[in-house]
Every structure is written in structure tokens, then in C-alpha cells.
Amino acid sequence: MGSHGHLTDAPPPRRQTTPPSPEMGQMVCGTCRCLLSYPRGVRYVKCAQCRTVNLLLEAHQVGQVKCGNCSVLLMYPYGAPSVKCSCCHSVTEIGLR
């Protein structure tokens, strides 16, 4: 302490951050858009917020298309004929690309 009862300048304490575990993955719930964490290797993830059971797909199992109504980027399982937007609820047909 200084002569007037003030603390001396000290460096702020370091904030310890832990990197995301490679054994965990993340996805956005298809219904309520809540961010979900899950252990890698599982096939389904149940949202704690809205209780929706979300099917988990690997990157090579999904396609992407922009919503025909609001242009949000949508993901769908390969082979699906259409995808319903979780934002505006519009159905976008999946064409041959």
C-alpha cells in the first residue's frame, strides 16, 4: 500500500480459459436455435430448452441451401427433397445441383 492507503499498480490477474474439448461438439437446436454441446459420437442431442431431439449429422452427410424466403443458410441431410426454415417456417425445395 502507498502512503495514502491506496494499492500499488499491480498487473491484473490472468483469466484462465480452457479450450473446447476435442471430445465435445456443438450444434444449434433446429427448433429454438439454442446452442447445444454434446459428446462426440452421439447420434441425437436433446435440447434442454425446448426438449426437441435433434439428429446429428457429420459434415459429409449434409448439404446447405439458402432459404427461398428469408435467405438464412439451411442445412439438410443429403437425399431430402425439401427443408423447412427454422426462422420463417418456409419450405425450400432441394433441387439437383
Automatic annotation (TrEMBL):
It is found in: Nucleus. Residues 10-22 have a biased composition (Pro residues). Residues 1-24 are annotated as: Disordered. Keywords: Nucleus. Residues 29-53, 67-91 form the Zinc finger LSD1-type domain. Transmembrane segments: none annotated. Its main location: nucleus. The keyword Nucleus applies. Pfam families: zf-LSD1. Signal peptide: none annotated. GO terms for cellular component: nucleus. This is Protein LOL2 isoform X4. It comes from Nelumbo nucifera (Sacred lotus). The gene is LOC104587143.
